[in-house]
Write a structure and sequence with these properties.
By secondary structure, the protein is mostly beta strands. It has one domain (about 5-240): Lipoprotein localisation LolA/LolB/LppX (outer membrane lipoprotein receptor (LolB), chain A, Clam). The chain has helices at about 5-15, 15-20, 35-40, 110-125; strands spanning about 25-35, 50-55, 60-65, 70-75, 80-85, 90, 135-145, 150-155, 165-170, 180-185, 190-205, 205-215, 225-240. It has a 13-stranded antiparallel beta sheet with strand order 6-5-4-3-2-1-13-12-11-10-9-8-7. The mean pLDDT is about 95.
Length: about 250
């Protein structure tokens, strides 16, 4: 993986790669809603959750603040969901469960947890995720939107990295902050997602968006009107590795 000037600028704008390497996890309080959860038959499952998003490995720990489930533990190989009565539901190689699905295919709670977990792991590890070995990066020129000009970075993720799909496009403003992130969702039959990042907050030296909204987009890259996913961050705590300083 060859770093580009654009990615260098983006990493610096978000707090710097050196600081990021001292972080173990982001502890988040989240409200996740939007039209896609109604389509999938899970409209309220993720409305009130807490999540520990790991930075050194693909793993997300979820605590449900209401409803029939108490917690979940996601890795690419295994999704575990625990009910409030103590019953454990488990699915290994969960991605295979989505074979043949499309955007209107219904999901069970394990499907929803799998999708949500890898998605927020991707989002909250970005843009530092783009700098991982094995990714192929390419600057693809400017984009005009909302009266602004954003620079774009095309990412081909390393084989085996679990995210929406192998290819994505990140849009950065003049300061280097990520403003939009486009992808195709393989487990939804190729549905598109334009993920907008808003409301950046300084979280112990890292700039992290506190609101994300996802819309589909057409062949020209224009976002559609339906809000598919709405992620509101209610609180953020950066967990630094033991023995490292936050300053």
């Amino acid at each position: 993986m060859v770093m580009t000037h654009l990615l260098d600028k983006a990493l610096a704008a978000h707090g710097g790669l050196e600081r990021w390497t001292r972080v173990d996890a982001l502890d988040l309080s989240l409200s996740i809603t939007g039209g896609i959860w109604h389509v999938k038959g899970q409209p309220h499952l993720l409305e009130h959750i807490s999540a520990s998003v790991m930075t050194r490995e693909p793993r997300v720990l979820v605590t449900f603040e209401s409803g029939a489930y108490s917690s979940a533990d996601w890795t690419p190989e295994r999704t575990v969901l625990t009910t409030t009565s103590g019953e454990t539901l488990e699915r290994t190689h969960a991605r295979e469960h989505f074979d043949g699905q499309f955007i209107a295919s219904p999901w069970d709670p394990l499907d929803a947890v799998y999708f949500c977990s890898y998605a927020i792991w991707t989002y909250f590890n970005s843009p530092f995720l783009f700098a991982k070995p094995g990714n192929v990066l390419r600057d693809i020129g400017p984009w005009q939107e909302g009266g602004e000009t954003w620079s774009r970075l095309h990412i081909t993720f390393a084989e085996g990295l679990v995210t929406h799909g192998r290819h994505a496009v990140a849009y950065f403003d003049d300061s280097g902050l990520l403003r939009r992130y486009d992808y195709v969702v393989d487990i939804m039959g190729g549905a598109t997602g334009a993920n907008y990042a808003h409301g950046y907050a300084d979280c112990t030296g890292l700039l992290i968006p506190q609101h994300r909204q996802v819309f589909g987009y057409d062949e020209q890259g224009r976002p559609q009107s339906t809000l598919l996913v709405d992620i509101e961050v209610l609180s953020t705590t950066v967990v630094f590795a033991e023995g490292t300083a936050s300053a």
